[in-house]
Amino acid sequence: MTGTIDNVDHTMVPVHNLDESARKMRRLGFTLTPKSVHKGLGTANRCIMLAEQNYVEIIAIDSIDAPQPPFAKSLQNREGTYAVALASENAAAAVVAFRKNGMIVNDPFTFSRMATTSNGETEVSFTVIMIDPNELPQGMMFICQHHSREKLFTDDVKSHLNGALGIHSITAIVSDLDVAADSYGKLFGWDRIARSEDFLTVSNEKTSLIFMTENYFISQYGAIYQPPTLPCFCVLSFSVASRLHTREFLLNAEIPFTEGLDGQLRIAPQEGCGDIIEFI
Known about the structure:
Number of strands: 16
Structural class: alpha+beta
């Protein structure tokens, strides 16, 4: 799939209470966009926009009168990453490439909506390709092409007190690495897949996707997280300008954290939005 997927565009993180989750993430040193209400959809979001041109979408149900969003069932089990949107600059070409490789994907769908930014209300548009869930049983993903990226990635929201620059990697626990390897090899291209007995890594331009067995995950992260169901995206890792600066920020803010074997700074799920937050 070389040339059709450029990177991870964003993660979708459903939460129960948008205001409370925003408060938690601000405490962790993240700058958030203003609340945007998705009229007619019954949802609202606030986003963590990053200098490396990817972001975290924190999303919640905002109206009980609208149809339940797709993430509602997942939210009954846990808060935390529900889906990963993959970036493409040419959605039409991506569809052709996926289908040539035997994957089942929907036709591209282009839509616009209003977004609330620090500069006020603005119209943004996207082209989305939904991938058949049976193609990726180890985690939901879709393709997202932005048509108004400059309206969202403004300088005032890309700077974070914790020094975060971008999404370094997203880690999931899976029950079958063979199935994951086959699925993501077809999606990304086998040249991007690195496989061991206990985990596999999908390398992209900036953000890696890591899939681990449950036992290996526990050996790396200990008891910091217990997934309710598998498969499960459960770690959001951020690249930072200076780990020393980030560590000092967390200490000054009295935010509890642990350190990995390579010096990663790890924050437990309850301190944020349901995922382990890791600074690398």
